[in-house]
Design a protein that fits this description.
185 residues; alpha/beta; Rossmann fold; six-stranded parallel beta sheet; 8 strands; globular
């Protein structure tokens, strides 16, 4: 499976959660698959979906899922010890590890070689790290939500992007509707 197939598979699970989605093509894919006001689409700031999601989870009680990529997490490794030392029970970091920088042309990341993000998360102090294959994402995500325990999920999948339209919604509109959804939840 590629990332867009995973997002299609978990769209109904995500619908009742607050979601912060990684920049570029992942946000475009989620937007095209199932746009929701509870989805915050990152249109810039590579590597910060996990940090923004953590902050949101610390600020309120509803479950927050940050959908991040291996390339983005690798650009902001400081987020893993911050999560490891401050992870609330309502936060799930789902790293979709396709071994590539998908939004910039599928250049390989080091997770396709020797770098192990699950081991890095454990070493950074993350207590509940789950490694899953793409086809098991929905079941693992639902278990993490139901378990009400801070979780880092590393989802291994194939590299590749679906052709999706660019998000034409103004970033201020994305922010404002997301903030209203957070307040309403």
């Amino acid at each position: 499976m590629i990332r867009s197939e995973i997002l299609k598979d978990i769209a109904l699970i995500l619908r009742d959660q607050l979601v912060v989605c990684n920049i570029g093509i992942p946000s475009q894919e989620l937007h095209a698959i199932d746009d929701q006001p509870t989805n915050f689409y990152m249109l810039g700031t590579m590597g910060l979906a996990s940090s923004i999601g953590l902050g949101l989870a610390l600020a309120q009680d509803k479950t927050v899922i940050s959908i991040d990529g291996d390339g983005s997490v690798l650009t902001n490794l400081g987020t893993l010890p911050t999560i490891g030392n401050n992870c609330p029970n309502n936060f799930i970091l789902m790293i979709i590890d396709n071994g590539s920088y998908g939004s910039t042309g599928d250049q390989p990341t080091y997770t396709g070689k020797k770098t192990d993000l699950a081991a890095m998360a454990r070493a950074a102090g993350c207590d509940n790290v789950v490694e899953v294959q793409d086809v098991d994402t929905g079941e693992a995500l639902q278990a993490a939500i139901d378990g009400k325990r801070g979780t880092v999920m590393v989802v291994k999948c194939d590299s590749g992007n679906a052709k999706m339209p660019v998000i034409t919604m103004d970033p201020v509109v994305i922010k404002d509707r997301f903030m209203k959804a957070v307040k309403a939840s």
